[in-house]
């Protein structure tokens, strides 16, 4: 049956008012202690402590097309300690020079002190000032940003510093530079301890866990943009997403203080697919996000005629609560409408049950049989087999006879199942058609696709979801346009 609800889909301007403070989850305290203890140079790059969100969505900016975050190029990519650091060499700016000198110090196993650091001058001396004459001097080159090494004594007469722990010149930029190739690979999980170990084996010098962590975070920020900035970018991204994808509905809910609470996205293509072409079935689930601000990812998927998964809506919220699910479902209802034939399948989370009851009073909420089974503590494989037989039974008679067997072999499971309500989990007793979907596995498959992205900043995560969907639609359209099988041969008799 086709659900004719497109008339319900209308463009509604965001209801929320201009947020007054941070747009991120909670406070921004996490970044306050991020100062590098080894900092002693031009590394100052303070994060905004209190970023006011101005004229929220009241202007329609043209922002760059995706990707939103272009990786910032790492300075001194092809660094060579012997050929790069010598008199007469020039660097793009003071930052590039500083990074190179720090890398050299790490590689040589010496420490230095900052001396004369001004916007036009750069000078470093060996940490053991009184017994060692090692030094380097550089100056700004004319009116340009470039810096040129004007003087250098490259001979250390002091003891090597590698015996001291936590190399003081290995700031976050140095560590990020070293880790850059590894950080670009989303599939790799870099732990602080591993970074410490890598630096030790590569440079024969130690850094602290904090140094490793700060370097990694800074490096990720260079590649992905900061999690904080990503929240600020989200409304721009959504605005453009709606503009470029007809029928797309996006919403952000912020609390009274303007702190981000919830996000809803349903691409126009997904809504049209569901309303016009899919069976009235939605499988919903939540997955936990990682990264600095954590959060929960909400997803609803439908199933097409080839039993392929079609993601319909996507969301991010603080936690899996009744309020979050209800708000998210209320926007979902605007997209697809309530319908007496609509079936939801999810786990037995009370928040989902409440949201479906409140927002889709006409629809029916069935539970995932696999999740239900996990609560039954079924004794053995045979009982599990029996359980699935009961769930999938087509007739009330088949259901009853197998339930009688279950009552004999494991009565506690029988009572739990009766308590849950057979109409919620049994195919024979479901008031609507379950279309052979007994579990919420399909939505978990979509979550599995994004498992590598759960640490990404919010806008990048959203973009990844939209890109994945766009890619799927593109590929299916290509297949549909070219496949020979679609051209039904004319039979001749
Ligand atoms: Zn020295």
From TrEMBL:
Pfam family for this entry, one: MULE
UniProt-listed InterPro entries: MULE_transposase_dom
Species in which this protein is naturally found: Tanacetum coccineum
Positions of the MULE transposase domain: 282-375
Protein known as: Transposase, MuDR, MULE transposase domain protein
């Amino acid at each position: 049956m086709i659900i004719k609800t497109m008339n319900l889909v209308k463009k509604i301007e965001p209801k929320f008012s201009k947020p007054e403070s941070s747009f991120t989850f909670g406070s921004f305290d996490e970044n306050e202690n991020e100062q590098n203890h080894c900092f002693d140079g031009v590394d100052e790059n303070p994060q905004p402590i209190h970023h006011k969100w101005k004229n929220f969505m009241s202007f329609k900016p043209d922002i760059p097309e995706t990707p939103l975050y272009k990786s910032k190029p790492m300075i001194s990519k092809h660094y060579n300690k012997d050929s790069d650091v010598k008199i007469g060499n020039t660097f793009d700016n003071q930052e590039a020079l500083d990074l190179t000198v720090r890398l050299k110090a790490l590689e040589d196993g010496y420490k230095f002190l900052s001396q004369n650091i001004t916007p036009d001058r750069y000078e470093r001396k060996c940490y053991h000032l009184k017994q060692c004459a090692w030094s380097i001097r550089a100056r700004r080159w004319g009116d340009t940003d470039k810096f040129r090494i004007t003087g250098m004594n490259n001979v250390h007469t002091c003891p090597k510093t590698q015996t001291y722990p936590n190399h003081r010149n290995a700031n976050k930029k140095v560590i990020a530079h070293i880790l850059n190739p590894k950080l670009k690979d989303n599939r790799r999980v870099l732990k602080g301890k591993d970074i410490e170990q890598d630096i030790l084996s590569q440079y024969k010098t130690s850094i602290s866990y904090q140094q490793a962590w700060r370097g990694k975070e800074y490096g990720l920020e260079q590649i992905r943009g900061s999690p904080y900035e990503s929240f600020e970018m989200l409304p721009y991204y959504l605005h453009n997403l709606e503009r470029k994808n007809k029928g797309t509905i996006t919403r952000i809910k912020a609390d009274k203080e303007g702190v981000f609470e919830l996000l809803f996205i349903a691409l126009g293509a997904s809504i049209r697919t569901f309303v016009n072409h899919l069976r009235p079935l939605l499988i919903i689930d939540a997955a936990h996000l990682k990264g600095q601000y954590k959060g929960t990812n909400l997803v609803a998927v439908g199933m097409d005629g080839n039993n392929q998964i079609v993601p319909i809506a996507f969301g991010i919220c603080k936690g899996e609560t009744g309020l979050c699910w209800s708000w998210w479902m209320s926007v979902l209802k605007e997209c697809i409408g309530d319908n007496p034939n609509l079936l939801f399948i999810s786990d037995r989370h009370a928040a989902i049950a409440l949201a479906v009851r409140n927002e889709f009073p006409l629809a029916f909420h069935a539970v995932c049989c696999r999740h239900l089974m996990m609560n039954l503590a079924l004794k053995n494989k045979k009982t599990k087999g029996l359980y699935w037989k009961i769930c999938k039974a087509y007739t009330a008679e088949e259901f009853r006879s197998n339930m009688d067997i279950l009552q004999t072999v494991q009565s506690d499971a029988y009572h739990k199942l009766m308590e849950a309500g057979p109409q919620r989990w049994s195919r024979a007793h479901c008031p609507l058609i379950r279309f052979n979907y007994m579990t919420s596995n399909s939505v978990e498959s979509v979550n599995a696709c994004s498992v590598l992205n759960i640490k990404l900043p919010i806008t990048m995560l959203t973009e990844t979801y939209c890109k994945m969907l766009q890619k799927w639609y593109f590929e299916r359209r290509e297949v549909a346009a070219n496949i020979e099988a679609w051209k039904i041969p004319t039979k001749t008799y």
